[in-house]
Amino acid sequence: MYELQAVHKRYGLSKVALRKIDLEVREREFLVIYGPAGAGKSTILNILAGITRPTSGEVLRDGVSILRVPPEKRDAAMAFENYALYSHISVGENLAFPLKARGMNRAEIEARVKRVSGILGIGHLLDRRPGFLSGGQRQRVALGRAIIRPADIYLLDEPVGHLDAKLRHRIRAELKALAADLSATVVFTTTSSREALALGDRVVVLNTGRIEQAGTPAEVYHRPANAFVASFVGDPPMSFITVLPRKGEGRVSFVTGDGMPVASLPAAALERLREEESSTLQVGFRSNEVRLAGPGDPGTLRGTVNVVENLGYVKIALVGIGADQVSVSVPAGTPLAVGETVAITFPRDAVHLFQNARAVSHAAPLAGA
Amino acid sequence: MASIRAENLVKRYGNVRAVHGIDFDIADGEFVAILGPSGCGKSSTMRMIAGLETISEGSIYFDGKRINDVRARDRNVAMSFESYALYPTITIYENIAFPLRSAGMENGEIDRRVRDIAEKMELVPLLGLKPHGLSSGQAQRVGLARALVRKPAVFLLDEPISHLDTRQRYRMRRFIKSLHQEFSYTMIYVTHDQEEALALADRVIVMSDGEIQQMDVPDEVYARPRNAFVAGFVGEPPINFLDCTVKDDASGWSIEIQGQKLALPQRLHETAQRIGSGGLAAIRPHFLSIGAQSPLTLQGRVFLTEELQDQNLIFVDVGEARLTLVAHPTIVPQRGEAVPVSIDPDQLLLFPAAELSKAEVPDL
C-alpha cells in the first residue's frame, strides 16, 4: 500500500498543485484519479513515481517513508500523456526495452511483446520507429511499454486520451481485464467521467489540488459528498434547482423561489440539515431520474426547453425552471422543440439535497427504472 | 449571415487529393457539423470556406455569390481554431477587443460588445488578466469569445472543445448551441467527435477519404447510416460489426455469424440479395440485450462488465468477435459466464463485407 500523508506541492512561489492531501493506494486496486485540467492529477503520479518531491508531507510504502528513494529504485511503471518513447529504436524494441533491462530471456520477451502489442492493436507497427507513428499509435506504444513489465505499481497518466472512440472503448476493457488478471496496483488519471466510473475500483475526485471525495464508483455517483462531485461525476452532469425549505408535519418540503413545490423529504432524512442563516439549498437530479410528465402525472414542474441535444440513442433536453436548468433524458424520436413549455416529474422523495454545496441527503439508486 | 453552397469542390496538395469533388448546401442560419477522422478532408474543406486555402477546382458560393477569388478577410468569416493563439502581451479584454479595434469600431461599442460576450462566456473575472496564467479551458473560451465578438456572417469552429473534461464539454456545447439559437449564425463545426456533431448540429456531413459519406439530420445518420463507415463512426459506444456469411437455402435467407445461424428479418432480404455471400452485420450496443427473448440470439461468453452506474457496458465474446452491449445497472453477469445475447431484429443492419476495410477508422 502507498500512502500520501498531508502532501503539499507548490511550484515556484504561488502555484499550488496539491493542498495537503491524504490518499492511499491500496494493494491490487485500480485507482482512478478524476478531475479537471489543472487539478493536480499528474503531480500525484509524479510524486508516487519519485520524479517530483512534495514541498511537505510524507509518502509511505507499506508504512515506510520512500521520500528518499530515487525513482529508479521504486519499481513504478509509468505511461505519460506525452509519450516519451525512444525515437532511435523500433516500436518492438521500445516495448522490449524494460524487459531487456531486467535481463528477461528472449522467449519470454517475445511472448510479452506479442501479447501486449495484440491487446493494444499495434502488432503491425513493431518494426517502425516512433517518429513514423500517429499520436494515437505513439500513445499506445507508451502504454504498452508501461504495462509490459511486472511492476510494483503502474502509473498511467491519461493513457488513452488521444485515441478515437472505438479504440478507447476496446483498450479500456482490455486494460481493466489485464489489471484484474495480473492483480496489479494501478493509478490511472482521466478527465472523462465514463472512463473513471468504468475503470476504477475506487475513484478519487480531485479539484484544484484538493480531494473532494474518494470512494467506489457507486459512492461517488450515488452519494456525492458535495455539489462539485455531483456535477462532475456522471455523463450528463447532475443538474440543480435552488429551493427554499417549508417545514410541515414531520416533513420538509422544498419550493422554488416563486413557490413551485419541488420535493418533500421526511424530517428524519434531514438530520444533516443545519440551522444556518443565509444558506443556499439545492435539489440535484440526474437526467435519468427526471422524465417528461404526461397528462395526469401529479406534482410536476413546468419549464421551457432551452436546448435539445441529440445523442442518437437518447436526447438530452435542457429545461429552464426559473433561473435553473435541468437536464432531462428523453427517448430518441420524442418530438421536442426549443421554446416549448414542458412539465417534468421525478420521485418526490428521491432527490439529492445540498446545503451550501454540502450533501445533506441522497436519492436511492434507481431500481428497475 | 449567409447561405453556403459548394459545387464539385476539390482540394489538391501537389499530387495528393484531400477533397475529391464534393457538393453541399448549407442554409442561411443553419448549424452544420462536418464529422470525420483526421485526414478525411474536413479541415481542408473548412479552410477553403474561410479562404485560408485556395480552391483547386469547383466553387464556393455565399448567398449565391461565388467567393473563390474573395480574400479571406473580406469574407466576414470568423474562426476558432484548436490552437487558440492569444496575444500574450495584452489583456484578455484587449484580446477579445482586437478584431473590433482592427475594424475601426468606436470605443463605446467595443466595450459594450466585449463585456456582453465576456458575461455570456463567464470570462468577466479574467478580463484584466493576461493569457499567461489561463487554464487551457479558459484560453479556449477566450479564443471563442474573440471569434464571436465580430458577429460574423459565417462562423467556423474547428474542434474547440474536444479536450475539455466531461462537465466543461457539456457546458461549452450548450453554450455554443444557445449562441446559435440566439444569434442564428450560419455555423459550421468541424470535429472528429461524433457526440458533439450529433448534439450540436441541425445536419451532419460525415466525411472520409475526401468524400461525403452522408449528409443528413442526426437521427437519420444514427438510425439509417448509408454505409458501414457512417455506422461505425457515429454512435457511442461504437456499433458492433460482425463478419457474416449470407445464405439463401431451404429455410430462407439467413446469416451465419461465428458459426451461429440467424434467420434474416424480411426487411433485409433485398439487401442480402444485393450483397451476395460476404456480409457485415452491424448492431448498436443499445439494441443488444442479455437473454434469449429475440428470434435473433447469439451464444457468447462474458469478457467484462463496466459498471457506469447509470448503465452497464457488457463485453461479450462470440467466437472470435467481441460484442459491446448496454444494459440496466442491475444486470451484472460474471466474467466468463456463458450468456445468450439477443439482437433487436428491427435494428440489425447489413452491409457488404467489403465495407469493413472502409469502416476501420485510421488511427488518429
Polypeptide structure, described:
- The complex is a heterodimer of chains A (369) and B (364).
- By secondary structure, chain A is an alpha+beta fold.
- Chain A has 8 helices and 21 strands.
- In chain A, strands 6-7-8-3-9-10 form a 6-stranded mixed β-sheet, sandwiched between helices.
- Chain A is globular and about 75 Å long.
- Chain A starts with a strand and ends in an 8-residue tail after the last strand.
- The mean pLDDT of chain A is 91.
- By secondary structure, chain B is of the alpha+beta class.
- The longest helix of chain B has 18 residues.
- The two termini of chain B are 33 Å apart.
- The relative contact order of chain B is 0.12.
- Chains A and B meet through helix 4, helix 5, helix 6, helix 7 and strand 16 of A and helix 5, helix 6, helix 7, strand 16 and strand 18 of B.
Count, helices of chain B: 10
Strand content of chain B: 25-35%
Largest interface: A-B, 56 and 56 residues
CA-atom Rg of chain B in angstroms: 24 Å
Describe the oligomeric state of these chains in a short phrase: heterodimer
Largest sheet of chain B: 6 strands, mixed
Give the biggest sheet of chain A.
6 strands, mixed
The topology string of helices and strands of chain A comes to EEEHEEEHHHEHEHEEHHEEEEEEEEEEE
Main structural class of chain B:
alpha+beta
